[in-house]
Amino acid sequence: MTADSLSEDGIVFEQEPKEPTEPDDQQAVDDQTGELAGQQLRFRVGSCIKFRRLDKYLTGRFSHFSRTRLQKIIKEQGVNVNGRPAKPSCNLNPGDEIDLILPPREFRELVPENIPLDVLYEDEHLLVVNKQADLIVHPARGNRSGTLVNALVYHFQKLSSGSEDFRPGIVHRLDRNTTGALVVAKDDTTHWKLSRQFAQRTIKKTYIAIVHGTPQLDADCINAPLGVHPTARERYAIRPDTGKEAITFYQVLQAFRGYALLELDLKTGRTHQIRVHLSYIKHPIVADDLYGGKAVYPWQVEDRDAAAEAPLMSRTALHAWKLEITHPASGKRMEFEAPLPADMQNFLDTLRKFRKL
């Protein structure tokens, strides 16, 4: 979309840009999105369609707007295709004419917050934190504050630019309720060098999980491709035909009656990989309700009558135990170990007391 294509009556006539879009061209589109907010836009779909669904197509065209926000506009009949209100799932064809009015861009501000951090290591290039439970790594839709990033910008003056807006220092992520070791970059050179290590799979990540039941084999490799769940967008699933390669190695460290402590090493790092893989072999992580895990109460572990008690584990019992990297500046191989959080340690101690084989 160019400024020259805006006519006197405020209507934009434009063909879809050819794929792939050059970075500079896409930046121009993003920069001008705010200027076009509130104006009537009209453009024709070109011959190279990356996404046929209307909502996905518009998300690709107007990257400053979330798909959820654009879907809302479509559902409110704010988008016409060939002169008629369309649904988000409407399939587009070359030559289709789209009319819409863009809403104002959301204003976002990254606010420093004094959230305590457990720093395992720090130097001038990077730091490693032991992330606590119930902490989202970076701001996202619906969670603009209270994240690890908000804490980082409060405690540290120097952080890398990040791979995306509002993600300074963030090289990799852990799920909200997954605890443990997470590396943060302080400068852009460190950031891209660490990112390359993740991409080349030279970073070693070792997790600990407490699962329901005990796997039949003391150690094994789970090799099952992952993709977005076909019906539940917040979940991932084993997708043999369309999924991406996902490989997890596990070892049983200790078995109990009804539960087991596992060590897990990742060859790949897909979203929700460990959680989906363990659910796939019928041993979901304790309290991981998204993938079949259940909260565990003291009376259950102690084989007592049901009682009104707080659960021993009310969040996913998964911990990023060890992280091994090559230091981007010194070239030295370094390993960091994050102690188990209190809830997992207490749960483990209770199992050792009441559920020993």
How is the secondary structure organized here?
Blueprint: H1 23-36, E1 40-44, H2 54-61, H3 67-75, E2 79-81, E3 84-85, E4 97-101, E5 119-122, E6 126-131, H4 148-155, E7 179-185, H5 188-199, E8 204-212, E9 219-223, E10 226-228, E11 236-238, E12 247-256, E13 259-266, H6 273-280, H7 298-301, E14 318-326, E15 333-337, H8 342-354
Parallel strand pairs: 7-14
Antiparallel strand pairs: 1-4, 2-3, 2-4, 5-6, 6-7, 8-13, 8-14, 9-12, 10-11, 12-13, 14-15
Helix pairs in contact: 2-3
Q: Quick one: biggest sheet? A: 9 strands, mixed
| Helix/strand order | HEHHEEEEEHEHEEEEEEHHEEH
Quaternary state of the chains: single chain
The CATH topology of the largest domain turns out to be Pseudouridine synthase
The tally of structural domains comes to 2
Q: State the helix count.
A: 8
* C-alpha Rg (nearest Å): 24 Å
Task: Pick out the low-confidence regions.
Answer: 1-34
Report helical residue fraction.
Answer: 10-25%
Fourth CATH level, the homologous superfamily of the largest domain: Pseudouridine synthase
Overall residue-averaged pLDDT value: 85
Shape: globular
The first-level CATH class of the largest domain is given as: Alpha Beta
Could you give a quick summary of the protein structure above?
This protein is 21% helix and 24% strand. It has 357 residues and is α+β, with helices and mostly antiparallel strands.
